[in-house]
Specification:
Order of helices and strands: HHEEEEEHHHHHHHHHHHHHHHH
Shape: globular
Number of helices: 18
Distance between the termini: 52 Å
Largest sheet: 3 strands, mixed
Strand content: under 5%
Helix content: 40-55%
Radius of gyration: 28 Å
Length: 506
């Protein structure tokens, strides 16, 4: 079963299988097991054949094929019944094949073929050349806006004029057009497939593989052995979600750079623009940033290609965010804090070409589900208005906390503290929007940090709770519109302290 679990590394040789085996068995090398020569299929009894050449698991003699995308525990030896030992996640090209008695178990060896280097096309000179040719073709055939302007050029929070909005919308429409055409056009160097095909072929498998590695890391308290850079799966394996998200942002970054260069040098040639975009792509991958994340895109892609879960380390991403501070200080529980990119920006343009849906049918169904949901929400809002109710009467606007679930989790769980942190984070965001003083923001963060640090200590918790309540009073006095949120937090704080009193009766 461990050998089958090692197949999730998509080994193509015995050496690669032996290295994947080390994910689970660190003390005994695969080469050291008592191997024997076997020239014929056993005459009786169950057997499994792992055919690395033809990518098949063959079962005979009544043997049961393992369930794919499952976790299995060992039957003998020390083990924890709540911790799966082996995670099985067969790669997309593998097959499970039962054979009857008398049928051949081995197929003829496949004709050797050079693997397709998809990343060499998607991230290489072909990308820069494709975007340069498309943007220049538009610039030579159609009038471009007189001003080069994007949303990033405007100060944060400023309201654009109608003219600016029209200009930015025009540039954005051109960007979408070029980006979609690049993704959807079949290419000879991709065996007649489009770039988009390879963004999603096997992506779900990579996501399941990373999830299994997160579970293994959490349960075994060690980072599973990553893929080596010379393995087939690392060099030619499918792209995962993180790499797809990085690729989307890379394309948008290159298109922004292309329009800037064309606007500055209308007579620039295709070769010069291709060279500039190719160099810019290499720079952005090595030194760029996604949403302020300290890891550059190349590092994020590298971790995923080696099947290493992303782990948040170092200082908090946003020092003013209580959730970030709580995470950085280990307040969300022991063990690594895994992080990732959901790819929400890929759906903002309502275009199938950019979405994470594999097929157009899947995307159309998703769009229909969104439409129905929005209609239901709008109908509910109208009903409340007709009944004289304020549809936005809730105090909290940007954070959602399932209070019932937090109560069921109990004080010993980190989730109640996390729910409280989400509310504090929204309040800090409101303070920033209201030009609140740095002293007040820092006082709230320090009071909340002290309260989290005192969690579990009866006397310290009472003192920290009183300090936090006093800080909330100061916020309400300085910013009256925030009084409802400050008062609600005080109420939650008092309720939590009453529960602490019950847990410490003496």
């Amino acid at each position: 079963m461990t050998l089958i679990g090692a197949l999730s590394a998509d080994p193509r040789s015995f050496d690669e299988l032996a290295r994947a085996w080390l994910r689970y068995q660190t003390e005994v090398a695969l080469e050291d097991l008592p191997w024997t020569e076997c020239h014929d299929v056993p005459a009786s009894g169950p057997w499994l054949l792992l055919d690395l050449a033809c990518l098949r698991i063959v079962a005979g003699g009544g043997a049961e094929l393992p369930e794919d995308r499952a976790a299995f525990q060992r039957d003998e030896g020390p083990w924890n019944p709540e911790i799966p030992v082996v995670w099985i996640n067969l790669p997309p090209d593998w097959q499970c094949v039962p054979v009857a008695d008398g049928e051949p178990a081995l197929l003829p060896l496949p004709v050797p073929a050079e693997p397709l280097d998809v990343r060499g096309v998607l991230f290489g000179r072909a990308l820069a050349e494709g975007l340069a040719r498309r943007t220049l073709d538009i610039a030579r055939r159609e009038p471009l806006p007189a001003e080069r302007l994007s949303w990033d050029d405007l100060p944060w929070g400023s309201k654009p004029t109608d003219s600016q909005r029209e200009t930015m919308s025009r540039w954005h429409a051109l960007t979408i057009r070029v980006h979609a055409d690049w993704l959807m056009t079949p290419r000879e160097d991709l065996e007649g497939q489009s770039p988009r095909h390879f963004l999603h072929r096997g992506r779900n498998w990579v996501e399941h593989e990373l999830n299994a590695r997160e579970l293994q890391w959490s349960n075994e308290a060690r980072c599973p052995r990553p893929l080596d850079r010379d393995t087939f799966a690392y060099r030619y394996g499918p792209l995962g979600r993180h790499e797809v998200v990085m690729y989307f942002d890379l394309c948008r970054e290159l298109l922004r750079a292309a329009w800037d260069r064309i606007a500055a040098e209308p007579e620039i040639g295709e070769d010069a623009l291709t060279k500039a975009l190719h160099e810019h792509a290499q720079w952005w991958l090595a030194e760029g940033s996604i949403g302020g994340d300290p890891m550059p895109p190349a590092t994020i892609i590298e971790e995923e290609r080696r099947r290493k879960p992303l782990v948040r380390t170092g200082p908090p991403l946003d020092p003013d965010c209580p959730l970030c501070r709580l995470e950085a200080e280990g307040g969300l529980g022991a063990g690594p804090t895994f992080c990732g990119f959901d790819g929400h920006q890929l759906d903002l343009d309502d275009e199938f070409a950019f979405s994470l849906c594999v097929t157009r049918e899947e995307w159309e169904k998703q769009q229909e589900d969104y439409r129905r949901f929005n209609e239901e929400m709008e109908a509910e809002r109208r009903e409340r208005e007709a009944a004289g109710e304020d549809p936005y009467a809730g105090v909290w606007k940007t954070s959602y906390v399932n209070e019932e679930a937090l109560r069921e989790a109990g004080l010993s769980s980190p989730w109640p503290v996390m729910g409280f942190a989400m509310r504090v984070a929204e309040l800090i965001g409101d303070l920033k929007a209201a030009d609140g003083s740095r002293e007040l923001i820092e006082s709230l963060n320090m009071a909340f940090d002290a309260y989290c640090a005192a969690d579990g200590d009866h006397s310290l918790s009472a003192v920290a709770a009183a300090q936090l309540a006093e800080t909330l009073e100061q916020i309400a006095a300085a910013h009256p519109p925030l009084t409802p949120k400050a008062a609600d937090l005080q109420s939650q704080l008092a309720e939590r302290q009453r529960q602490v009193e019950l847990d410490f009766p003496f």
